[in-house]
Design a protein that fits this description.
With about 150 residues, the chain is of the alpha+beta class. The protein has helices at about 20-25, 55-60, 65-70, 75-90, 95-105, 110-115, and strands at about 5-10, 15-20, 40-45. The chain has a 3-stranded antiparallel β-sheet, with no helix packed on it. Strand 1 and strand 2 (about 15-20) form a beta hairpin. The protein is elongated.
Length: about 150
């Protein structure tokens, strides 16, 4: 039996009505239990939709900002899979250190633990953003030479 949520436009209060069939809902004139008025609006809430892993990768590859937000605070294994996916899509050789980081993430090691154990890189920029769970994010653009060094 379908249950629908409504809001009484006179009081602003929400209420639910259960119908035996969808056809019964289509023919019904819903009244507020608070006022008896038909001055009501149907409330439609957000719903969660489960997505396949390939759909998530497609969204990430297309640069969907909502897909990137899904990686925020992701567990290390998920972050490792995402980095592996992007590394595989890249035409550049990401190097052994990058592959080592992916393997450690996929084994469940946190980005913070990995960063502490890795030797210092030339500029360390590719490690930026791992702590936030969003791969490839940094405070400056890839072509930017980075923060100015004090003389």
């Amino acid at each position: 039996m379908p249950t629908y949520e409504f809001r009484c436009n006179d009081t602003g209060k929400d209420f639910e009505v259960t119908f035996k069939t969808v056809e019964e809902y289509d023919q019904a004139s819903v009244e507020s239990p608070f006022t008896g008025s038909t001055n009501v609006s149907r409330v439609i809430r957000r719903v969660a939709i489960s997505k396949s892993e390939s759909t998530r990768w497609d969204r990430l590859s297309e640069g969907d900002p909502h897909a990137l937000a899904e990686l925020d605070n992701a567990d290390p294994r998920t972050l490792g899979r995402a980095l592996r996916h992007f590394g595989d899509q890249s035409e550049m050789d990401m190097g052994e250190e990058f592959n080592d980081v992916i393997e450690r993430l996929e084994a469940g090691q946190s980005p913070e633990q990995i960063e502490q154990q890795l030797p210092s890189t030339d500029d360390g920029r590719w490690l930026e953003g791992l702590g936030s769970g969003v791969p490839g994010t940094s405070t400056y653009a890839p072509d930017d030479p980075g923060p100015a060094e004090d003389d």
